[in-house]
Structures are given as structure tokens and as C-alpha cells.
UniProtKB/TrEMBL annotation:
Functional description taken from the UniProt entry: Removes the N-terminal methionine from nascent proteins. The N-terminal methionine is often cleaved when the second residue in the primary sequence is small and uncharged (Met-Ala-, Cys, Gly, Pro, Ser, Thr, or Val). Requires deformylation of the N(alpha)-formylated initiator methionine before it can be hydrolyzed.
Amino-acid positions noted as binding substrate in the UniProt annotation, renumbered to this chain: 81, 179
Domain Peptidase M24: 12-243
Molecular function terms, GO-annotated: initiator methionyl aminopeptidase activity; metal ion binding; metalloaminopeptidase activity
Alphabetical list of NCBIfam families matching this protein: met_pdase_I (TIGR00500), PRK12318.1 (NF008970)
Cofactor or coenzyme needed: Co(2+); Zn(2+); Mn(2+); Fe(2+)
Key word Nucleotide-binding present: no
Catalysed reactions, as listed in the record: Release of N-terminal amino acids, preferentially methionine, from peptides and arylamides
PANTHER family per record: METHIONINE AMINOPEPTIDASE
Cofactor: record remark: Binds 2 divalent metal cations per subunit. Has a high-affinity and a low affinity metal-binding site. The true nature of the physiological cofactor is under debate. The enzyme is active with cobalt, zinc, manganese or divalent iron ions. Most likely, methionine aminopeptidases function as mononuclear Fe(2+)-metalloproteases under physiological conditions, and the catalytically relevant metal-binding site has been assigned to the histidine-containing high-affinity site.
Binding, a divalent metal cation 1: 98, 109, 236
Source organism of this protein record: Alteromonas confluentis
Name of the molecule in the record: Methionine aminopeptidase
Gene: map
Keyword terms: Aminopeptidase, Hydrolase, Metal-binding, Protease
Amino acid sequence: MAAIIKTAEEIEKMRVAGKLAADVLTMITPHVKKGVTTDELNTLCHDYIVNEQDAIPAPLNYGHPPFPKSICTSVNHCICHGIPSDKKLKDGDIVNIDVTVIKDGYHGDTSKMFIVGKPSILAERLVRVTQECLYEAIKAVKPGMRLGDIGHICQTHAESHNYSIVREYCGHGIGAGFHEEPQIVHYGKPGTGDELLPGMCFTIEPMVNAGKRYSKVLPDQWTVVTKDRSLSAQWEHTLLMTEDGVEILTLRDEETLPRVISHS
């Protein structure tokens, strides 16, 4: 594993980038409502990142083919990498907005689920359980933990509610690179995989399906959907491993988790 241990200077830059990414999700929250298009949400986020934060939206022109927008908007049965479009959100929709900001060469990456209007009981439960998968994994993170431990926590919690974990897409190391080593899968066996070390920065971002775990990529080569068209949810934070626990670099004010969790 070629995980990059961050220097004190790099960690400060990661804190700044993480805060900016969190602020984008806070800014966009009141705009996510019935009748708005995901492209309108994209424009608001793009303008805020570029003009207000003097930063760069990492998804724009990323990859092959180049991603055409500045955020990912994944609605209902879309698992991830949904491309903002002129389709309007409707009552009962669930949507993941995934934001990655580059500031001074470093990345902050985070996503949040939004519920439009009144959700179905199934949708509300899926969104809640997926967030719990993320939170339970974060709360357990400490030096000496192994990658399989993170995956096992997410998988066990999702499957205890009869949901399934998407396996083709995962969390990742992050820093000067958008996607660095290691890969953080959201399933696995305790005590397996590489060890987590202080100074590592990475994302945990479980994708949980209400139906089966299988996915497919649409012809645009980006949008990933559930094969059985069941609902899917995802939450994501960028984390810093400390000497005795974890710091959540993308924590929002609305969240109840502590920013720094210590196991000493």
C-alpha cells in the first residue's frame, strides 16, 4: 500500500479544503426542493466554489471521458456519479450531492443525502441507515485498525437492515491527488487488509442499495445505477487519522458527531 502520510503543512491544507467542501453542502441545502433541476444546483455550487471560495470544483473535466459538471447528483436509483441535468426534482425524491473542492492543490471530498418533500418510509429508512453505516465506521477509526474493519462495520450494519453494499465503488486516499491509495471498500472481514496509520487522509463513503447490490454504468460512461432499479443512498466524509483516533475534515455544523474523536 502506497498510502501517503501527510505532513503538518499538508494537513492544514486538507483542513481548509475539507471545510470548503462542507460549506458547499451547507450552502446548497435550502435550494434542494421540488421543481429545481439538478443542473440548477450544479450552477449554484459551481459559482459558489469558483467565485466565493476562490477554489476549483474537482469533478469538472475529471477522468475519461471528462466529467461534464462540477458536482455529482445521484437521484433515487442512481448509486453515484450522476450527471446534473435539466430533470426537475419531484416530491419524494432522494438525491445525493457529492462535492469535491480543490484549494491550494489539496482536495476536500464529501457527500450528503437530501430528501425532497415527503419521502416514502423505505426511502427515509435507507437514507438514515446509510448515514449510520458511515458514522459507525468513523467512530471506530483509530491507528492499528485495518481496512477490513471499516468494511465489516459498514457491511454488517447495512445487511442487518436487509440492505446491500455496493462493491464496485469505494472510498479512497485523498490529498494532492483526488484518488490516492488506499482503496477503502465498504465490505470485508475484521482484521484483514492494510493497517491505518496516523497522518493518512481518506474518505469513507458507503453506497447502500435497498435491493440487490448489483450496479451498471449507463452509456454516458459515468452514471451508475442499481441493476434492479431499487433505491440507493450514500454519505461521505474526508477523514484524517490522528495519533489516537480520527478528525472529520468535512464535518458540517448540522451534524452531531464530534469533529475530533479520540480513543486514548
